[in-house]
C-alpha cells in the first residue's frame, strides 16, 4: 500500500469514527447499537445516551406488543377502552405457573398508567383475589415497597415486564405454597376513583 493509499484509508477511518460519535450524541443509538438494539453500550464500545421517547409513542409500542401476544400466552394485557386517547387504563391477565398453588388459575389485574408513565411505574391492582406477600389483602394493590420491580423502577421497564415478574413471584418459595382464596372469587370492591383521575391531559 502506498503512502497516498494509507492516507486515504486513515482519513476514511477517522471519518467513520466521527460519524459514529455524531450518531451517539444526536440519536438514541450508534450505528452498531441501532442494529443490535443494545441501548447503552454498543458493540463499538461507545456509550450511547438514550433519547427520551414520548409517552404516546411508548404506549403505542406497548399496545402493539400486547396485541401480538407474549411468549406462551400465560401473560397478556390490553387497553380497557380503545377510545381512551391517553391510554391510562389497562387490564392484564396471568395464568398461574405450574407446580405451584396458582397452577391453572387465571388472575386479572388493573394497571393504571398516569401522565408520568413510564418515568414512574403504573399502579397495579389484582382484581382476582390472591394471596401473595407483595399484594395488599384488603385492596388487592401490589405494594411497591414489597415488589422489587416497582420499588426499583426504570424507564425501560414495561407492563409486560411487570406481569412476567409477578408470574415469577408466584413461583418464589414464599408464595408458591400459600393458601389461596377459592377460585372465581373476583374482587367486587369499587375501584379507587382517584387512581383513574390521576391520568391528566398531557
From TrEMBL:
<feature type="domain" description="UBC core">
    <location>
        <begin position="54"/>
        <end position="202"/>
    </location>
</feature>
<feature type="compositionally biased region" description="Basic and acidic residues">
    <location>
        <begin position="186"/>
        <end position="195"/>
    </location>
</feature>
<keyword id="KW-0812">Transmembrane</keyword>
<dbReference type="InterPro" id="IPR016135">
    <property type="entry name" value="UBQ-conjugating_enzyme/RWD"/>
</dbReference>
<feature type="region of interest" description="Disordered">
    <location>
        <begin position="169"/>
        <end position="195"/>
    </location>
</feature>
<dbReference type="Pfam" id="PF00179">
    <property type="entry name" value="UQ_con"/>
</dbReference>
<comment type="subunit">
    <text>Heterodimer with UBC35 or UBC36.</text>
</comment>
<feature type="transmembrane region" description="Helical">
    <location>
        <begin position="12"/>
        <end position="35"/>
    </location>
</feature>
<keyword id="KW-0472">Membrane</keyword>
<keyword id="KW-1133">Transmembrane helix</keyword>
<dbReference type="InterPro" id="IPR000608">
    <property type="entry name" value="UBC"/>
</dbReference>
<protein>
    <submittedName>
        <fullName>Ubiquitin-conjugating enzyme E2 variant</fullName>
    </submittedName>
</protein>
Amino acid at each position: 500500500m502506498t503512502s497516498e493509499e494509507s492516507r486515504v484509508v486513515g482519513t476514511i477511518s477517522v471519518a467513520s469514527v466521527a460519524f459514529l460519535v455524531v450518531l451517539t450524541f444526536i440519536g438514541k443509538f450508534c450505528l452498531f447499537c441501532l442494529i443490535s438494539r443494545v441501548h447503552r453500550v454498543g458493540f463499538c464500545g461507545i456509550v450511547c445516551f438514550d433519547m427520551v421517547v414520548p409517552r404516546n409513542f411508548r404506549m403505542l409500542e406497548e399496545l402493539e406488543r400486547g396485541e401480538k401476544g407474549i411468549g406462551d400466552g400465560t401473560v397478556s394485557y390490553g387497553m380497557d377502552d380503545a377510545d381512551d386517547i391517553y391510554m391510562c387504563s389497562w387490564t392484564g391477565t396471568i395464568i398461574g405457573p405450574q407446580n405451584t398453588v396458582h397452577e391453572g388459575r387465571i388472575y386479572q389485574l388493573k394497571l393504571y398508567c398516569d401522565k408520568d408513565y413510564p418515568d414512574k411505574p403504573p399502579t397495579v391492582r389484582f382484581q382476582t383475589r390472591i394471596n401473595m406477600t407483595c399484594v395488599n389483602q384488603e385492596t388487592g394493590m401490589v405494594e411497591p415497597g414489597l415488589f422489587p420491580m416497582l420499588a426499583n423502577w426504570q424507564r425501560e421497564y414495561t407492563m409486560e415486564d411487570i406481569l412476567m415478574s409477578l408470574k415469577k413471584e408466584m413461583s418464589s418459595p414464599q408464595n408458591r405454597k400459600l393458601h389461596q382464596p377459592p377460585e372465581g372469587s373476583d374482587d367486587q370492591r369499587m375501584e379507587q376513583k382517584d387512581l383513574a383521575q390521576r391520568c391528566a391531559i398531557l
